[in-house]
Fold this sequence. Notes:
Elements: H1 2-25, H2 53-68, E1 76-77, E2 92-93, E3 159-166, E4 170-178, E5 185-197, E6 204-217, E7 221-235, E8 253-267, E9 276-288, E10 294-308, E11 311-326, E12 329-345, E13 349-362, E14 367-380, E15 384-395, H3 399-405, E16 418-433, E17 436-455, H4 457-460, E18 464-487, E19 490-502, E20 515-524, E21 529-538, E22 541-546, E23 557-560, E24 563-573, E25 578-585, E26 593-595, E27 598-599, E28 604-612
Helix pairs in contact: 1-2
Amino acid sequence: MRSVYKLTLLTLLTVFFFDSANAQTKKPADKKQPAKTAKKTTAKKPAAKATTGSQQKANAKNLGEAASKVPAADTTKNGAKNANNEASLAEEIVVTTSYKPVLAEAVKIRRNPDLEDKEPYKAPLSYAPIDRKLSQDNNIRQLDAMKRPAEQDSALLNNYVKAGLGSMKTSFAEGYFGGGRDEALQVGGFVKHFAQAGSINKQSDSRQEIGVFGKSINSETTLTGRLNYQRHATYFYGFDQDASTPPAFDPQKQTFNTISGEGEIAKNFKDEENAFTYAAKFKGYLWSNAFNARENNIVLSGFMNKTVKQFYAGLAASLDLGTQKDSLYSNNNSIVRANPYIKFQGENYKIEAGVNIAKEFGVYSRFYIFPAAKLELQVVPKYIRLFAEAKGDVNKASLKDFTNINPFLGQNLNLVNSVDKLDITLGLKGTLAPGLSFKAAVFRNSIKNLPLFVNNFAAEGNKFSVIYDNGDTRVSGFNGELDYKASDDFNLFGRVEVKDYKMASEAKPWNLPKFLLTAGTTIHINNKIDINGSLLFRGSAQDPLLVTGSTPANPLYTTVPSFADLSGGATYKINKQLSVFIQANNLLNASSKTWVYYPNYGFNIFGGVGYSF
């Protein structure tokens, strides 16, 4: 509305100026007669209607153009003259100009004031001159030791548990428990469980273990101790799967229970001249199975060692007491050993010379003296060493050791101690490159009464027994180990073993493979992910079980084919305490067999969670 009023006022002023200009151009009437004033009435115009901004601008423009086209007029108005005919000072002058108003559009400035105080901070400066004498000594000065900053104790997580489930009815659980940070007294314990069941009738395996341990470090000696319980349950599920009509049978269950313990006292190492060191150890176990077999064993051992300059003189001894029982026998099988030795050690060599004296008593009464010598020589300083060894010993026949290798053994096993008459080894070991270590050796062993596991299916259906190669068996071969540790985040390791057997009385080295390869890797991707993998390749073996077409003149024995077992797993740490894991076994799903009639488990996978506290 204000714009309308301004426009109307502007129009009236323009008309008024035009009329005043025209009035000044007319001559006045006779002086004697007063001039008549003409009254001019102006008709009132109706109020202008409200217009939009664009219409107002158009009207202003048109009005300005019309005013500019009005011709200039004489704006001088003569006033009255006095008696001398001179113009009076009273004179009115009207000045008119062409006016063309243009209203600019309003623009709002959208900018706020900057209220931030940007004055930089100026720290107060203070100067202190150093009063120090200029030193002209140009020799290298020994650096002063820097004080090590105090360490901050981190929160220890002494306990860890994890559990999981998977295919083949797999159940898995482990727990580890520790006592704390005390370096002088360490105590802890653990529990383990693993069970699986295959597709064959009662093909199952279940293992449990529980144990506690402790270690006490005193000023002069260190004491350690451990107690364990192990349980292993399985079934005699094997049968001839190639038979046209498999036998319908209910496999027997086998269970092994072992209670073991050990304790040791040892003198702490001290870097002193002519040191005297000693240690004593006790260990034993009670073993039993689901039938009548029992085995008890106690071993007392120790050593004493005296250093005289670069010479080491010592004596190691042990007393191995054992009893073995089954339904048909009860034996006392014990061995006492003594190993006096002397060592020479220099910068580039190590030499150990001694003998191993062994005496059997109980069911056997035999006496042996074996060599016990070692040599190490540095052929490439700091990189490659040559080593050689010659030794011998009596290997005690044990129900526990045999069933750990083959859990499908029958009852009343024939137990005979084997004798390593002479084992000779020659090889190299050392480092080829940073992080790459190796060991390679060739060996030749002479073994009397080599134990062999063979089938006893004719007498016990689906069980195995133990026989011996009567005489001296020659075993020669090669062992190689390789370990590549590029960093703390990557480790690759492997071991290969090749053997050749020259049997004394048996036709073949029954169920003993001639080639064995084991390898594995652990990879630490980052703080969250860890990966592991393992590979087992086992060469073929033979069992004395005769096959179709066999004749006394040309016997054909059952072959246990070679196989490869590839496994792998991964762990993902959600945080410092919680993690998840997955493990897959037999990724190749090989239908392998370690023993005749007893196939191994196929592909299986399981996973779970772990928690630290």
